[in-house]
Amino acid sequence: MSRTVWLVVFTLWGAHISAADLSAQMLAKDAALIELDGKQRMLRAGQTSPEGVTLVSASRAGAVVEYQGSKYSLSLQKNIATSFEEAERAEVRIASGPGGHYEIPGRINGMAVDFMVDTGATSVAMNSGHAQRLGINYLTGKQVLVNTANGIVTAYSVWLDRVSAGSIEIKHVEAIVHAGSSPHVILLGNSYLSLVDMSTENGVLVLKARH
Questions:
Q1: Is residue 79 located within the same domain as residue 123?
Q2: pTM above the 0.85 mark?
Q3: What is the pLDDT of residues 55-69, one digit of tens each?
Q4: Are 158 and 141 in contact (CB under 8 A)?
């Protein structure tokens, strides 16, 4: 069963809101994927969703949001809501960050990572340090040569069991592991992006599961 961050009622003014209405699907440093009445919004600290939810602060341990004049604390716990109905198709909205980049927390083989969306990358791409932290034995993969901004480098083609960006999980995704320290952030490339529907709305990147 997927893990979900549900509302813990610690309001500053005593207001109450149902846990079924407001939740967070993913937490990261200064970012959170917030869901309100079935609509998901990727927010950075200080941003307010069109529905009026403001992300005050966030870390992997928890987040604070403000909604309708009250502040609430969000913490990670297992989803046990019997009335929960899965959306017809999972959708993630990502606001652009510094430099116009789209960054989103996710998971590789169940382990938390931070992605930068890169439509110019053929595959999910990471450096050897990332692979070691994630327990990926990349040296058993197929050795390839990759043309990068720093020239041609040695890399290894591997297959990842599961890749999730926000709440959208894709199984059996190809990745390229670069020997050395580049790229500094894990790139969410087209081996994943080609398997979801992608569009932009007013500068917000929208990813939508196909099933």
A1: no
A2: no
A3: 888 887 777 888 877
A4: yes
